[in-house]
Amino acid sequence: MATLVSIRNLRKTYQRGPEKVEVLHGIDLDIPKGDFVALMGPSGSGKTTLLNLIGGLDSPTGGEITVDGQRIDAMTAGQLSHWRSQNVGFVFQFYNLMPTLNAQKNVELPLLLTKLSAAQRKRNAEIALQLVGLAERGKHRPNELSGGQQQRVAIARAIVSDPTLLICDEPTGDLDRQSAEEILALLQSLNRDHGKTIIMVTHDPKAADHAQRTIHLDKGTLVERELALEH
């Protein structure tokens, strides 16, 4: 299977007052196209830092990140912003929906940067909401939806531009177990039936069990990889 994400000697250092703190220490990692990876590790291990670097939300101190043949570590902030809009969908723990917009308008937000007509944006948002099982809730605002439904809207927003890569940071961290299971089943379906490559940070082993593979970080170093059972 072709490699989608290739990471070589990746390092990230932050300046905290007079001290430099190295968060990632020379990581090497390959993620094949169509993979569903769970990224686990204790607090402070570098999980979210690694996720943000792969998603182009931050730039590394050293090393290389290649996504679908493009070197993103050397991109300027403007180039990264454009690249993200074309290639990455983001799902966060707290949904980050606009409270004044209904579900459909929230899903349309990434499309405002494209040349699509208003009618086409509306149609694409409707298709995305249908994919996540919320076709009938497009006119509802976030405060009229449950937590699980709000996360489905966030996932619809993440996939509406048909990105190559889905980046999920604790996507079930704010949900009850039943809603979490539904969201994880949805991510599995997007991976299995629609070919989406997914990288998910989670602290929950039950959530990680839904992935094809689990990668463990500890103190900024890759310490273990294990293949999950096929689903």
Give short descriptive properties of this protein.
single chain; 231 residues; alpha/beta; Rossmann fold; six-stranded mixed beta sheet; four-stranded antiparallel beta sheet; 7 helices; 32% helix; globular
CATH superfamily: P-loop containing nucleotide triphosphate hydrolases
CATH architecture descriptor name: 3-Layer(aba) Sandwich
Report the helical percentage: 25-40%
Number of separate structural domains: 1
Number of helical segments with 4 or more residues? 7
Largest sheet: 6 strands, mixed
The count of strands amounts to: 10
Q: Choose one word for the global shape.
A: globular
CATH topology call: Rossmann fold
| Unreliable residue runs | 226-231
Strand order of the largest sheet: 6-7-8-3-9-10
List the helices and strands and how they pair.
Elements: E1 3-16, E2 19-32, E3 36-40, H1 47-54, E4 62-67, E5 70-71, H2 77-87, E6 88-91, H3 103-108, H4 118-131, H5 147-159, E7 165-169, H6 177-194, E8 197-201, H7 205-208, E9 213-218, E10 221-227
Helix pairs in contact: 4-5, 5-6
Keywords: ATP-binding, Nucleotide-binding, Transport
GO molecular function: ATP binding; ATP hydrolysis activity; transmembrane transporter activity
Family: Belongs to the ABC transporter superfamily. Macrolide exporter (TC 3.A.1.122) family.
